[in-house]
Amino acid sequence: MNAALRRMITGALALSLAAPLAACGDSGDDTGTDQESVGLLLPENKAARYESFDRRIISSRISTLCLECKVDYRNAEEQVDIQKRQFEAMVKKGVKVIILDPVDAHAAKSWVDAAAEKGVKVVAYDRLAEGDVAAYVSYDNEKIGQLQGKGILAALGSRAADADVVMLNGSPTDPNAPSFKKGAHDALDGKVHKIVYEKDIPEWSAAEARKKMSEAVKELGPAGFDAVYSANDGMAGGAAEALKSAGLKNVPLGGQDAELPALRRLVSGTQSFTIYKQVRPEAETAAEIAFRLLRGKSIASFTPTTADSKSKSNIPAKLFNAQIVTRKNMQDTVIRDGVVPTDWICSKGLAAACKSLGLD
Predict the structure, then answer these.
(1) DSSP structure class, residue 37
(2) pTM, whole model, 2 decimals?
(3) What digits encode the pLDDT tens for the residues 177-235?
(4) Topology of domain 141-276+323-356, per CATH?
(5) Which of 64, 184, 232, 259 lies in the 20 to 30 Å Cα band around 198?
(6) CATH, domain 13-139+278-320, list 3.40.50.2300, 3.40.50.970, 3.90.480.20, 3.20.20.70
(7) Max CA separation in the chain (angstroms)
(8) Of 330, 180, 140, 148, whose CA–CA distance to 253 is shortest?
(9) What whole-number distance in Å separates Cα of residue 124 and Cα of residue 47?
């Protein structure tokens, strides 16, 4: 999904990632065969998911598939120029397959096209990079937006038809953001009275979301809206702070990513829902596709659908479905799957609320 957008913290990490990563290195073969490399370029390291989940799951899966293979990993730390240098260095080194989660999908086009001309296969991961990519692995982002819109409608209940909604959309440079927005509008338009305030938030900034939410309160008045759509949990946190500062309570607010602070807000009642996307199936599928491309094998069984970017159509793709999480189904989703332990959620004065939800 997005660059500031996607923090998943776990207490069950050791169990879920038990496969040793050391196998990614030396195979122990003394025949002198060169290791085959798969490049892995992730966009940032502020979100815990990239280092704790994506990198380790992809590396572990590739080591299982190919003992002699090496994962050449780099993180761009949210800098497009850094990612460009990392990508071009991998191509120069002779890496033949690169899994790329782009900082800026449009900026990546020239690098991806130049690499493709040299026979390098690029697997677009989580965000669809522009250019001649070989495959794309992510979630169905329009459906996620639809889930978010439906979450707002469910939180509003019988008030939905007369409700006015504030929309805080994702970063304009993230190719997933328009899909979230479109899906949300598909669900909300015609079902609520009106979208009374709507802004795209650069870099998924929580601080900017708080600023825009405060601006909306000032422009519309405390009674001028009934619910807030936020494209991710980080921005939902900023919106929640603005609502609290304005003395507003019980305003339906949705997000995405099932981040720990958002799960706590679900328990406390200051956020209505979040969207849960399992990282493991996405990461393992990307690893499988990268390995098969490296070996010249078909990826058809792993890419049952196609996707279109602004520069290429019919890209072989695997798009997963996500789940909506509310305070009522946390036990059967994020807690059951070990995304975050109950005692992490039920800290900071939430013991009584957790007990009432059966989470203690």
Answers:
(1) E
(2) 0.82
(3) 999 999 999 999 999 999 999 999 998 999 999 999 999 999 999 999 999 999 999 99
(4) Rossmann fold (3.40.50)
(5) 259
(6) 3.40.50.2300
(7) 74
(8) 148
(9) 19
